[in-house]
Amino acid sequence: MQDINIALIGGGFMGKAHSLAYAAMPMFFWPAPARPIRKTVVDVTEELASTAADRFGWERYATSWQEVIDDPTIDVVDIATPNHLHAEIAIAAAEAGKHVICEKPLAPSAADAKRMLDAVERAGVVSAVAFNYRRTPAVALAKKYIDEGAIGTILNFRGTYLQDWSADPDSPLSWRFQKKIAGSGAVGDIGSHVVDLARYLVGEISEVSSIVSTFIKDRPLQSSGFDALGGSVKSDGPRGEVDVDDESVSLVKFRDGAVGSIEATRNAWGRNNFITFEIHGTEGSIVFNYENRDELQVAFKNDPSDRRGFRTVYTGPSTPYGDALWPIPALGIGYGETKIIEAYEVMKAIVEGGSVRPDFADGYQTALIDEAILESGRTGLWTPVPEHPRAR
Ligand code: NAI
Ligand code: SOE
After folding, report:
1. Could you count the other beta carbons within 10 Å of the beta carbon of residue 234?
2. Does the domain made of 3-131 have the CATH classification 3.40.50.720?
3. Segments making up each domain of the chain, as ranges
4. pLDDT given for residue 108 in this prediction
């Protein structure tokens, strides 16, 4: 079995998730396509980097990402930093001939995402953007049903991503509220996941009409030097401007004729990781809610009329990725499993000399849709989405 040497940039929330995925992938997928070796982890200070190495099982650590770009033993650069660093690191990595995995959103702007796409295409390396929710087995099962024609021609997609970690106006000014770091707010941070699901399950979005708002316009500055996701800071201390959106509601048209809607907010009290979609087709419907992610609700037109209605299918050994996961349906799929499956798909593409979806072309197309949503929010007009020729 081939060893693939990984360098991970960023030892925060996603640093933890990706480290777990590399360690666990061969325990689930056996024989594994490759053995991912946790070679070097990079973070900004000695303390952060060495702690990440100890805690997440990396052989070495560094405090400058350029070090791993210059290291000829590194095969893959995995970018798990805040968004504004994605482009610079990914382009340098591709130019050094490394395969690149990058967290979402691919970049703070579509222009940066395009530069990243050009760089990986020029270098001929594998690229992947970490929209891991499409790896949820129930989502992959929905895709299978759609591809098999089980719900017929799709007419409508309703997607949401609702959270409440920032609903309190006194939750701190994370980098996720700063345009210069994040690029956009709920649109790029969480709406992009729904856009990815919509593209994966239904197809290309051609036009959007959006309302984009910022309800909480300032938040307490953080003092610890560490970025806090949520929480509450009750103080008279200094506050900083929120210069990104915190709520977006979009109507969307798909190129193939379907219609739909996409909503994203991190200010919906009571909602945690409420990623949902409801898809209606000419032959049936599919409903998914990530908060019950072992389940898919399905209803089919051809069911006998006295039995028609939604029923629950639990993912397990006979549904996508089931062989590699747990032996009994409904035993419980977690966030970790989505990242393990993601690591498997990327390692497989690298070893086979192929490609993986979603790649940087998908990340770029999603960035174009996000920008159309933001533009429509500014103008109040239906806004066309440019279609990248390689997308879909
Ligand atoms: P975080 O704030 O928890 O961690 C970011 C880490 O990057 C921190 O340890 C920070 O010190 C480090 N860092 C900052 N500048 C750096 C530099 N120049 N070199 C090396 N390390 C540096 O952020 P989180 O939540 O891990 O987000 C990282 C990325 O992952 C973002 O793009 C975010 O949108 C994405 N994300 C994706 C998720 C998903 O479900 N796919 C979930 C959470 C985040
Ligand atoms: C915060 O909204 C966040 O961490 C997003 O950045 C992730 O993409 C999402 O998966 C979980 O929530």
Report:
1. 8
2. yes
3. 3-131, 133-379
4. 98
Tell me which ligand sits closest to the C-alpha of residue 363. 1
Per the document, the length of the chain is 392
Q: Which two tokens stand for residue 349?
A: 């593409």
Phi–psi pair at 5, nearest 5 degrees: -85, 125
State the pLDDT at residue 391: 57
3-class SS of residue 186: helix
Instruction: Give residue 70 CA to ligand 2 midpoint distance, Å.
Output: 31
- Low pLDDT (below 50) residues in the chain: 392
Instruction: Give the Cα separation of 376 and 206 in Å (integer).
Output: 13
Topology of the domain covering 133-379: Dihydrodipicolinate Reductase; domain 2 (3.30.360)
Which helix (H) or strand (E) covers residue 201, if one does?
Answer: helix 192-201
Supply φ then ψ for residue 156, to 5 degrees.
Answer: -150, 135
Instruction: Compute the distance from residue 179 Cα to the ligand 1 centre, in Å.
Output: 15
Ligand 2 contacts CB of residue 265 (under 6 A): no
**Parallel/antiparallel/unpaired status of strands 295-300 and 311-314:** antiparallel
CB contact burial 190-214 (16+ within 10 A = b; e otherwise): bbbbbbbbbbbbbbbbbebbbebee
Element (H, E) at 372: helix 360-379
Pocket of ligand 1 (CB under 6 A): 9-14, 42-44, 48, 65, 80-83, 85, 103-104, 130, 132, 189, 227
Contacts of 118 (CB under 8 A, 6+ apart): none
Phi, psi angle pair for 53, to nearest 5°: -60, -50
Q: Which ligand is nearest to the CA of 162?
A: 2
pLDDT of residue 169: 96
Q: Is ligand 2 within 6 A of the CB of residue 266?
A: yes
At residue 320's C-alpha, the angle toward residues 318 and 321, to 5°, is 100
